[in-house]
Write a structure and sequence with these properties.
This protein is of the alpha/beta class. It has a 5-stranded mixed beta sheet with strand order 5-4-3-7-6. Strands 1-2 form a two-stranded parallel ribbon. A hairpin with a 5-residue loop joins strand 3 and strand 4. It starts with 5 loop residues before the first strand and ends with a strand.
Length: about 160
């Protein structure tokens, strides 16, 4: 089975590349310094700073791997803001979980406007990126963090 492409805007792609560079060039060094300082304090068995720094290190490496995987399968999409039938930033889209029938409605927003409590999702999130360019009736597949594939049908797209 061919790997699913991550549809992204140029801005979304650039933001992920910037985040990846920051993680690799800055965050790794900051955490390595924290770990070094904690080691210099001696006994690591009950050192909360060391434990927190190691947790942060694992989180950074997991995020780097996640971004690498997204970028490996990234495909840039251009948005035609005048095409009301396609999902793009600013569109409100209603989707239905094909297996369970649950319906959800989201407004696709830029990454700086994310407000999960009000059903606004980023065009850079896995769901938002998968929806970009979709039309009513399309079926999209989204991989959950645990590797499960969920299929959604696009029920409606509106402005």
């Amino acid at each position: 089975m061919a790997e699913k492409k991550n549809l992204m805007t140029r801005e979304g792609l650039k933001a992920l590349e910037d985040e990846l560079n920051d993680l690799k060039l800055n965050k790794r060094k900051e955490v390595a310094q924290k770990i070094k300082e904690a080691r210099e304090q001696g006994d690591l068995s009950e050192n909360a700073e060391y434990d927190a720094a190691k947790d942060e290190q694992r989180d950074i490496e997991a995020r780097i791997e996640e971004i690498d995987n997204i970028l490996k399968n990234a495909e840039v999409v251009e948005h035609d803001e005048g095409d009301a039938d396609k999902v793009n930033v600013g569109a409100t889209v209603k989707i239905k979980d094909i297996e369970f029938g649950d319906e959800m409605e989201y407004k696709i927003v830029g990454s700086t406007e994310v407000d999960c409590l009000n059903n606004k999702i980023s065009n850079e999130s896995p769901v938002g990126a998968a929806l970009i360019g979709a039309k009513k009736g399309d079926v999209i597949e989204i991989e959950t963090p645990n590797g499960e594939m969920i299929k959604y049908e696009v029920i409606s797209v509106s402005r």
